[in-house]
Amino acid sequence: MNLIVFALLALLAITAVAIAKLRELWAVIMFTGIYSFLSASWMMILDAPDVAFTEAAVGAGISTVLMLSTMALTGKAEEIPRKKSLVPLFVVLVTGATLVYGTLDMPHFGSPNAPVQVYPDPSFVERSEADMHGLPNVVTALLASYRGYDTLGETTVVLTAGIAVLLILRRDDEEKDESAQLAGNKTS
Amino acid sequence: MTLESIAGLYNYWVVIFLMMTGFYIVLARKNLIKSVIGLNIFQTSVFLLYITMGKVDHGTAPIVPPAIAAEQAHAAHGTTEAGHAAVGHAALEHAETAQGLAHDVAHNLADDAISHGSELAHASTEIIYSNPLPSVLMLTAIVVGIATTALALALVVRIREDYGTVDEERILELDRGE
Amino acid sequence: MSAFPIIRIITKLLIPYILLFAFYVQFHGDYGPGGGFQAGVIFASALILYGLVFGLDAIKKVAPPIVIEKCMALGVLVYAGTGALTMALGGKFLDYNVLEHHVLPQWHVPSGQHLGIFLVELGVGITVTAVMTMIFYAFAGRKQVQ
Predict the structure, then answer these.
(1) How many domains, chain A?
(2) TM spans, by residue (chain B) (predicted)?
């Protein structure tokens, strides 16, 4: 088990570095898909099948298609080579070191006494047994019932983002095109 | 820095490494699509941070085994004596298969369940479940994340159409009128 | 891509199963891993696969943009409508306990919390499917400008 996890995490780290290093956009997008799959695998090991499921479908499926279609629209424009600056690396190292320092006080991995696990008490799993009359998947119960307002908000955000994409990308002449086509069909 | 704390904190460090890689891509790469990809990597690392915090040692996914859940449903609606016997039986079976559970305790609990039926809830809580709350938060965040990524990519497409390039510095130069 | 017969045929073979799996994830989400968000994304990916292989015009015949557009809002409406329904039945907004009924108990018709979660997940599934498909249409329908 541990070996699998370590291999997985090593692959995850290597993929992330490869994405940062590579310059060709097509390869980067493919690696992003692989990265999503690997993180979905780790989520699966971490007992979150629902999230792993979503990440695999979204990250490796839809997001790759969207990135590729964006690349098709913008061209494979290679980056213009510039002299390398060390500032980003420095900023990243300092931020990372600060964050690692911050983790030293964090509850250990898998600890059942971590604040996340202790609150709320009784936990949602226990509560759902009485409240839900035998719905086995606590994640769904929590998503749709206990946090129903939240999910309504999230759904609205998805809708809003969809509308915004349509507003930005839909061609103004789409209707004109169609009417022109109709006219063309009539004349031909 | 003991070995124990390394074993206890490695998950955060992996997440921080991934997060910083994403951050580096956003800072260092001037291609706008590459920046969006960097943000995506950053975002996924945040998902992983939440999910690792929800994991409990020897835990399992927060899905109640169907047999137990069905019995709960019956218990909640009130059933006959036969139903109660079935409840006890299911609890016994379950107790035997449960991992990392002292068998004596399990059998005691199962006996209780047979005699009382409604004690079943106790037996089922003996399975350790990982925390469902981070899963729920991240589940919605992933889908909202792809919607906002699509919005960002749409903006990139429009920028390419107006400026003819997706290079950050080139766009700034064009804005300055160079 | 429709010039490659292998891709065409494999896609045609796969799509029904992807759709079936999406429905399974949608309606079995209360019992196993799954739910509206996942099902919506899987359903949309089946549509997108069809669009990628057979072209935008073919997929627009199967799922007309005008319908998908309406579905984007319909999902949120179903979700919020469930909330309004619970209010009309005398409960709080999205308090599914008031949906408890005793129609055909031997058929296991969902009731109470189960029914509420079912309706809400359905709404989420419709919106996510429609939004993802619509985003694909928006990107695929645009021509590259030089």
Answers:
(1) 1
(2) 12-28, 35-53, 136-157
